[in-house]
Design goal:
Methylamine Dehydrogenase, Chain H; disordered C terminus; 4-stranded antiparallel beta sheet; mainly beta; 41 strands
Length: 448
């Protein structure tokens, strides 16, 4: 409740996005939220529907290079240039464990949620950590730096792609090599299994995408772009498309039957480091060096939401019961004019403005339906000088009703069922101020 005597407004700050390059984007398995990691040293958790930031996780002292969500959606793991692997509680954002090893560029949770695979350019080993304890349990030597790893759909195998163009298939969890293939494609930058597990696609710094038949180990180039580095590559959920993100700011869709380009998404102003699909395949997320995250309609290619580095600050007097609206107040003490704005805090846009001439608004309270708002004010108009409370419709901007008030108004609150208003008013007995509580029915308007 905001009181007339309060000297400072509550500050609502909506941090719309990261301040620096976004290196990693990933949906939770149920699609309800997504996670991003950035060069600004933070990990952020976002609501998938509204694209509002739910939590910002601080713990890394350098760039966050990658972040992943466990299959059950309960844990988040992030790797930073500070050589720190941090395991977080996805619900509370609390740090559960950390382990200092290497600057991990790729992290994977095992399908049973028990382990985290970690790969780095700095070491030739793929490291296995226990989840959620962060305890180092095993390591597999590859002989070269590993920028790319991917689990098979059944979780029994994972593939790694190395700097020296070697594609290696490993059994999990014992770490036995099933096959190792010298592809001669140059440095492998990304790799991903097909939804049915029959193929692995991998990309290189020359802008080429190749395919490896898992059963035979046969590899062949299928797509050659115009030389741009490909940072992320994956299959669509139905296996119909290959999706690649590159240094030239593009996200490209390729048909898996003809390997022809069918769609190109443009919207970023910097290299696109990471892309991921929602579990239902309807949405695509992308993270870029331009510090933005874009949510796309994967079918049409339309941009649904851009989350950039803008920060929106709002001083507000009240928050609606559904949590989606806020009311701000500006008062001109010289002219006795008040301006009340209603904001949609999901979009940071003003949806209604109320202007009051010769009225000082003291208190603002949202009704329980979040569709109407109560305002307590002092009128300086000669004909109606004094205190009053009025109820307003937010959608139409029209006044619904007035309430009489003869005492000095302090503040008010609406009962949970929305049927009554409790008003705190100041009265004087023998020149001594006292507070009095008035109880009013919302359904009793002032007689005109």
């Amino acid at each position: 409740m905001i009181k007339q005597s309060d000297k400072a407004d509550v500050k609502l700050v909506v941090q719309s996005g990261h301040k620096k390059a976004v290196n990693s984007v990933v949906f939770a398995p149920d699609g309800s939220f997504f996670v991003t990691g950035s060069n600004d040293k933070t990990v952020k958790i976002w609501d998938s529907a509204s694209c509002l930031c739910k939590r910002t996780l601080h713990g890394h002292s350098d760039l966050v290079l990658t972040a992943v969500v466990s299959p059950d959606g309960k844990l988040i793991a992030s790797g930073g240039k500070d050589r720190n692997l941090i395991i977080w509680d996805a619900l509370t954002g609390e740090k559960i464990a950390e382990s200092y090893q290497w600057s991990f560029h790729s992290l994977l949770f095992s399908p049973d949620n028990k382990y985290i695979l970690a790969a780095s350019d700095e070491t030739t080993e793929i490291t296995v950590f226990e989840a959620p304890s962060g305890k180092l349990t095993a390591s597999f030597d590859t002989g070269d730096g590993i920028p790319a790893i991917s689990f098979s759909p059944d979780g029994k195998t994972f593939v790694s792609g190395s700097h020296n163009s070697v594609l290696t298939f490993w059994e999990f969890p014992d770490g036995k090599i099933k096959k190792s293939i010298k592809t001669n494609c140059g440095r492998i930058t990304a790799a991903s299994y097909s939804p049915d597990g029959s193929n692995v696609i991998y990309a290189n710094e020359k802008g080429e995408i190749s395919i490896c038949r898992v059963e035979t180990g046969e590899c062949s180039k299928i797509i050659k772009t115009k030389g741009q580095v490909i940072y992320s590559v994956l299959y669509s959920s139905d296996g119909r498309f290959i999706i690649a993100a590159d240094k030239k700011k593009n996200i490209t869709f390729w048909d898996t039957s003809s390997y022809k380009q069918v769609k190109k998404l443009t919207g970023h102003t910097g290299a696109v480091f990471s892309v991921c699909l929602s579990p239902d395949g309807k949405y695509l997320l992308s993270g870029s060096t331009d510090a933005s995250v874009i949510k796309w309609d994967s079918e049409t290619g339309d941009i649904l939401k851009t989350i950039d580095s803008n920060t929106f600050k709002l001083s507000f007097k009240a928050l609606s019961h559904d949590g989606y609206k806020a009311a701000s107040l500006n008062y001109d003490s010289k002219k006795h004019n008040s301006e009340v704005k209603i904001w949609d805090i999901r979009t940071c846009k003003c949806i209604r403005t109320f202007n009051f001439k010769q009225h000082q608004i003291f208190d603002i309270v949202f009704a329980t339906d979040s569709k109407t708002v109560l305002m307590g004010d002092l009128s300086f108009e000669t004909a109606s000088k004094g205190y009053s409370v009025s109820l307003w419709d937010i959608e139409t901007g029209s006044k619904i009703m007035d309430f009489c008030e003869d005492d000095s108004f302090e503040n008010m609150v609406v009962t949970p069922d929305g049927k009554q208003i409790f008003e705190a008013v100041r009265v004087y007995e023998n020149n001594t101020p006292e507070l009095k509580i008035n109880i009013r029915d919302q359904c009793c308007p002032k007689k005109q």
